[in-house]
Amino acid sequence: xxxLVKPPxxxxxxxxxxxxxxxxxxxxxxxxxxxxxxxxxxxxxxxxRCLSEDLAPEEVSxxxxxxxxxxxxxxxxxxxxxxxxxxxxxxxxxxxEGLKMLTNLVECPHDAVEVGMPLExxxxxVGEGLTLPFFKPAGAV
Length: 141
Ligand SMILES: [Zn+2]
Known about the structure:
With 141 residues, the chain is mainly beta. It folds into two domains: 11-59, no CATH class; 61-141, CATH 2.40.50. The protein is built from one helix and eight strands. A five-stranded antiparallel beta sheet has the order 6-5-4-7-8, with helices on one face. The longest helix is centred in the first third of the chain and has 8 residues, at 17-24. The structure holds zinc ion. Zinc ion (ZN) binds at residues 33, 35-36, 38, 47, 49-50, 52. Zinc ion is lined by residues 33, 35-36, 38, 47, 49-50, 52.
C-alpha cells in the first residue's frame, strides 16, 4: 500500500469555509437562518423556508440518530483502499426534523449497526491536514 496517497481534500469556498473551520476546531457547525431559525445543510445562500439571506453558522449538539447506511466494500479513491469496508451513513441531527448529513459511522461492529441508533460526533484526522466529522455510537469510549 502506498502510504503517500493523499486523501481527496475538500475545497472550501465562501459558503462552506465555516464548516471546515469548525471541523478543524472539533466543532460541528451548521448554517442557520437568523430570520426564522431554520437549519440548512448542505450550506446554501438562501433559507429554503423563508428565503432570507441572513444566515449564520451555529454550533450544534453533535448528537444524531442513524437514518440510513451502507457498508462500502469498494474504494472509490486510492486513499481508501486500505480503509474498506467502512460504514457510509446518513444521520439525522436532533436540532431539526429532516436535518441530515452524510458521514461515516465508526467504532461500531458492522453487525451491530441499526437504523435509529443514537450517535455522537467524533472528529478524526484521516490524513495530513484533513479532519472529518464522523459519528460513533453514543456513549462509546
Ligand atoms: Zn429562514
